[in-house]
Write a sequence for this structure.
């Protein structure tokens, strides 16, 4: 129940510069695992770090943080904090202790531990309270949001974040249902959505898209990613690596567009024969996007939709 098989681990380690050929300087650097989960990636980072290396792990889920303290509480090179990675800038400043930051990892989305527990309310397959917050100690639950949101808001979220073409029908069905009684259970929502979605995508529950959309909205997932990416670039030391693993197209598009923008010169300056000092892009892309092998997908079906991207902080003038 508390299991989570890490995805693209070797590729992530290599991307962070912590592969077998890692230098001593890198191994003794400061790293961030912005999405601790159950620590699959953190365990491998710690194994690759040198004695002076440090790992800051972050998770907004109190259960993940507790699991981190249980698993690595005795490890002097490790600290785990309960926070949302949108606050990356202040978290890195508070924990780096003057060390250069050599790598930041994002393994986005929800963990198997979250999906598997009916009481967290993420799953359409297991009946539970309609919650869906990664951090149940704050914010608005899915039930609270669905009880108060306007019809057009619900429709827009489901269309945009779920890319659900029956969003209007689903939103109407939700609003009609809540007029008789508040929606409080995942099974109830899954049934209402299934009744409104006309076609069946092979191998997909008809409520998959709507659940994804509501979860992303309740947790402001895209906003968090945008804030964290913006903060990650200046946090990295020259040569430091940014590694992001995404699980669906909306996340990956955000990461891809950000990395492309940060690794290209400002289009307004593109016609100049030479870029002025400080106008060089701050990142360089490292390799192409990576996808799991067939063997990994066979062993861990959750890896199926994963895409990993890596970029490196370039050495540019101070203050840029
Ligand atoms: C896919 S899991 C990570 C699994 C982890 N790499 C492992 O191997 O166990 C994603 C984790 O990131 C956390 N998370 C997602 N968005 C977050 C955010 N904005 N801030 C902090 N943690 C977040 C979730 O709570 C979840 O535990």
């Amino acid at each position: 129940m508390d299991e989570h098989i890490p995805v693209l681990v070797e590729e992530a380690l290599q991307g962070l510069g912590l592969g077998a050929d890692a230098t001593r300087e890198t191994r003794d650097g400061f790293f961030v695992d912005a999405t601790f989960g159950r620590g699959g990636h953190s365990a491998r980072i710690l194994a690759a770090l040198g004695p002076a290396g440090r790992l800051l792990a972050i998770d907004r889920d109190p259960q993940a943080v507790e699991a981190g303290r249980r698993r690595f509480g005795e490890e002097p090179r490790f600290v785990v904090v309960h926070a949302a990675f949108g606050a990356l800038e202040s978290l890195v400043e508070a924990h780096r202790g003057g060390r250069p930051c050599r790598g930041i990892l994002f393994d986005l989305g929800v963990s198997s531990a979250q999906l598997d527990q009916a009481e967290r309310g993420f799953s359409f397959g297991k009946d539970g309270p309609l919650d869906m917050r990664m951090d149940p100690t704050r914010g608005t639950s899915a039930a609270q949001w669905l009880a108060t949101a306007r019809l057009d808001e619900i429709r827009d979220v489901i269309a945009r974040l779920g890319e659900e073409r029956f969003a209007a029908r689903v939103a109407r069905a939700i609003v009609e249902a809540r007029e008789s009684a508040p929606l409080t259970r995942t099974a109830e929502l899954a049934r209402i959505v299934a009744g409104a979605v006309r076609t069946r995508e092979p191998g997909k529950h008809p409520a998959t898209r709507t659940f994804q959309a509501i979860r992303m909205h309740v947790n402001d997932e895209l906003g968090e990613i945008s804030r964290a990416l913006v903060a990650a670039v200046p946090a990295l030391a020259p040569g430091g690596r940014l590694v992001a693993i995404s699980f669906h197209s909306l996340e990956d598009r955000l990461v891809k567009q950000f990395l492309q923008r940060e690794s290209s010169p400002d289009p307004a300056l593109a016609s100049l024969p030479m870029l002025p000092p400080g106008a060089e892009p701050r990142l360089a892309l490292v390799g192409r996007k990576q996808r799991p092998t067939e063997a990994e997908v066979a062993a861990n079906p959750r890896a199926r939709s994963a895409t990993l991207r890596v970029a490196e902080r370039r050495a540019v003038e101070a203050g840029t």
Q: What stands out?
A: The pocket of S-adenosylmethionine is lined by residues 4, 6, 35, 37-41, 58-61, 64, 84-86, 107, 109-111, 134, 224 (CB under 6 Å). The CA atoms of residues 143 and 159 lie 19 Å apart. Strands lie at 30-33, 54-59, 78-82, 101-107, 236-246, 283-285, 307-313. The first helix runs from residue 9 to 15.
